[in-house]
């Protein structure tokens, strides 16, 4: 039986677990260090099975050994951003948490794929990769899917065109330096520049970069979890069902896009082999400059974590 472990039973982790079992993708183990929280949430979800009609099991635990034989481990553990806090502010605390989590993944689920969700995303993904020693294709960060979804959502609001008729992609680090690719954005088949004025488009690009912070400001005591969990589960689905779908994810670059030894968001074919192929888009000089600037932010933040 297929098994997915979700480490971190906060809002994002619980939503990831719920979506996986309701889609009948896999049995789920929900892990958290707080006693009773994963057990209670898992039991609550399990009791919805007769109503929702899913047959997969879900259990909560504080014991990492229960992730043994996991096909995929989704990591959401860590502190969420508070108002006024950037993703980079989180790096030291969450770095300590992710190092410990990664050691347990290596010990108990050495053959698993890892989907990283904890912020600052690209840095935590690279830290997990270094700590586990897993192959590049087996550690993948969830970022660009969420950022692209936000971009499409805002474009749909602006143009009143359904989201399914909008094509877009957002590259770069999951933070203020992300790179929405305007030249690869189409509204019902037409270039976005023909549908939206330059000023409005620039505003939407900036709103996309601030997408997470906008929600944090509104909630006041929490951060986004519905869209992030949906994004992570799409990656889980692609791996388990070998979808071969091209999605923007944070992966290790070995010279692609002129970048070396850094995890950052680029289009990747996701299938049963994890990150199976990195797709290199032709970028303008400005886009390439922005992507490299985003990579420098990731590398600089990683140095903070490694001090």
Percent of residues in β-strands:
15-25%
Question: How many helices does DSSP assign?
Answer: 11
Write down the overall mean pLDDT. Answer: 95
CATH superfamily of the largest domain: Lactate dehydrogenase/glycoside hydrolase, family 4, C-terminal
SS elements, strand count = 14
Q: Helicity range of the residues?
A: 40-55%
Structural class: alpha/beta
CATH topology of the largest domain: L-2-Hydroxyisocaproate Dehydrogenase, Chain A, domain 2
Q: How does the major sheet shape up?
A: 6 strands, parallel
Please state the second-level CATH architecture of the largest domain: Alpha-Beta Complex
CATH class of the largest domain: Alpha Beta
Task: Describe how the helices and strands are arranged.
Layout: E1 3-7, H1 11-22, E2 27-31, H2 37-46, H3 49-52, E3 58-61, E4 72-75, H4 91-108, E5 113-116, H5 121-132, E6 139-141, H6 144-159, E7 166-167, E8 170-171, E9 179-180, E10 186-187, E11 190-191, H7 192-195, H8 198-209, H9 211-219, H10 226-240, E12 245-254, E13 260-271, E14 274-278, H11 285-306
Parallel strand pairs: 1-2, 1-4, 2-3, 4-5, 5-6
Antiparallel strand pairs: 7-10, 8-9, 10-11, 12-13, 13-14
Molecular structure report:
This protein is of the alpha/beta class. It has two domains: 3-141, NAD(P)-binding Rossmann-like Domain (Rossmann fold, 3-Layer(aba) Sandwich); 144-306, Alpha-Beta Complex (L-2-Hydroxyisocaproate Dehydrogenase, Chain A, domain 2), CATH 3.90.110.10. The chain contains eleven helices and 14 strands. It has a six-stranded parallel beta sheet, sandwiched between helices. Helix 4 (91-108) runs parallel beside helix 5 (121-132), helix 5 (121-132) crosses helix 11 and helix 6 packs antiparallel against helix 8 (198-209).
């Amino acid at each position: 039986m297929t098994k997915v472990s979700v480490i971190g039973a906060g809002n994002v982790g619980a939503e990831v677990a719920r979506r996986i079992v309701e889609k009948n993708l896999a049995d789920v183990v929900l892990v958290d260090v707080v006693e009773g929280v994963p057990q209670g949430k898992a039991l609550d979800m399990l009791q919805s099975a007769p109503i929702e009609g899913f047959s997969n099991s879900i259990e909560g635990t504080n014991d990492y050994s229960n992730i043994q034989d996991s096909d995929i481990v989704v990591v959401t553990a860590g502190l969420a951003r508070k108002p006024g806090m950037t993703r980079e502010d989180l790096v030291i605390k969450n770095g300590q948490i992710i190092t410990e989590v990664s050691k347990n993944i290596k010990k108990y689920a050495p053959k698993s794929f890892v989907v990283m969700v904890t912020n600052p995303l690209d840095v935590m993904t690279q830290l997990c990769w270094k700590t586990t020693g897993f192959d590049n294709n087996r550690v993948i960060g969830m970022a660009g899917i969420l950022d692209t979804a936000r971009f499409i959502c805002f474009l749909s609001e602006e143009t009143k065109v359904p989201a399914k008729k909008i094509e877009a992609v957002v590259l770069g680090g999951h933070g203020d330096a992300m790179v929405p690719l305007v030249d690869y954005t189409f509204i019902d088949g037409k270039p976005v520049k023909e549908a939206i004025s330059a000023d409005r488009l620039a505003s939407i690009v900036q709103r996309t970069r601030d997408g997470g912070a906008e929600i944090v400001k509104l909630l006041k005591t929490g951060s986004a979890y519905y869209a992030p969990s949906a994004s992570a589960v799409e990656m889980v689905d692609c791996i388990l069902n070998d979808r071969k779908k091209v999605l923007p994810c944070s992966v290790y670059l070995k010279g692609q896009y002129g970048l070396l030894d850094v995890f950052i968001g680029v289009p990747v074919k996701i299938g049963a082999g994890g990150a199976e192929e990195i797709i290199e888009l032709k970028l303008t000089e400005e886009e390439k400059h922005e992507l490299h600037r985003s990579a420098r932010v990731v590398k600089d933040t990683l140095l903070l974590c490694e001090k």
